[in-house]
Amino acid sequence: MSSDPSFLLDPSIFATLDKQLEQESQVRDAIGQIVQRLERAVASAQGLLSRVHSTPPSQYDQLAAQVEEAVRQEIPIIHELDALASQHPYYKYNAKWSRAVQNAIYTAIYCAWLGGFADVQSSHIGRLLTLDQVGAIFAIPVNLTDRDAFHLTIEQYLLSLPDLTQDLARLASNAVTLGDFSLPLTIATFIKHLFAAFQLLNLKNDVLRRRTDALKYDVKRVEDVVYDLSLRGLVSRPE
Predict the structure, then answer these.
(1) Domains delineated in the chain
(2) Nearest alpha-carbon partner for 24 in 32, 35, 34, 12
(3) Which one, of 43, 146, 20, lies nearest residue 92 by Cα?
(4) According to the model, what pLDDT value does residue 239 have?
(5) Pick from 88, 161, 168, 174: CA 20 to 30 A from residue 193's CA?
(6) Which residues pair with 152 in a beta bridge?
(7) What angle, 0 to 180 degrees and rounded to 10, lies between the N-to-C axes of helices 131-138 and 60-85?
(8) What is the DSSP string of 199-233?
(9) CB-hemisphere CA count at 13 Å for 42?
(10) Angle at CA 109, nearest 5°, toward 106 and 115?
């Protein structure tokens, strides 16, 4: 038997692996570049949404229109991500884009809560888009089970909701500062109903369970605002 080391290892094995690693690196880089553009677009929408804390509700329709336009700037970028990501197994690279897509979902949901996207659902403050409606806005499939392709997941949708309630709890306090005593009541009702709905879910995802557990703190913050308004006689008591 030959003891020549050259017969013990075929160099082509690692040459092939190196080529595959390089290809995967190129895919990750390409996805990363798209995600960076999406993050910038989402940041623009979030910047507009932050103005809600200094905007009276009478001007929410104008603000919602601006946010809606910013959200629509996210759509072609998400379609680019869809075209590239769908060429590969979903869970191979989804960690690269999951947070950015979750934030994009948040901007659409918050915009609709303020009265935007009237073409998807009747326009009024305090409405919650469904996952299917979010998918319709972005023109992206949701919760795919019949094929391995890019889509919006239930987890991404659910994880965006604690971000919404956290900002709404802050908005309740700022609305009082602006002299609006009715909006905190709307926010309180919305967050309480959302928290109750989450209690019906059997959550297996540890991250999701921890995030949704934090909803009770948002409920408490808004209840404190409403309680203070009630004590001061600034909101009508139920008869």
Answers:
(1) 15-152 (1.20.58.190), 154-238 (1.20.58.200)
(2) 32
(3) 20
(4) 46
(5) 174
(6) 142
(7) 80
(8) TT-----HHHHHHHHTHHHHHHHHHHHHHHHHHTT
(9) 21
(10) 140
Query: For residue 114, which amino acid is it?
Result: L
Average pLDDT per 10 consecutive residues for the chain, totaling 239 residues: 62 79 87 97 98 94 96 98 94 93 98 92 86 97 92 95 97 95 95 94 83 91 95 74
Q: Please enumerate in sequence order all residues whose Cβ is within 8 A of that of 74, keeping only pairs 6 or more positions apart, or say none.
A: 38, 41, 42, 45, 104, 107, 138
The pLDDT of residue 237 is 56
152 φ/ψ angles, rounded to the nearest 5 degrees: -90, 135
Residue 20 CA: distances (Å) to CA of 10, 30, 81, 144, 179: 17, 15, 21, 28, 61
Residue 72, class by beta-carbon neighbours within 10 Å (0-12 exposed, 13-18 middle, 19+ buried)? middle
Q: Show Cβ contacts of residue 181 under 8 Å, excluding neighbours closer than 6 positions.
A: 175, 229, 234, 235
pLDDT at 202: 85
The model's pTM is 0.90
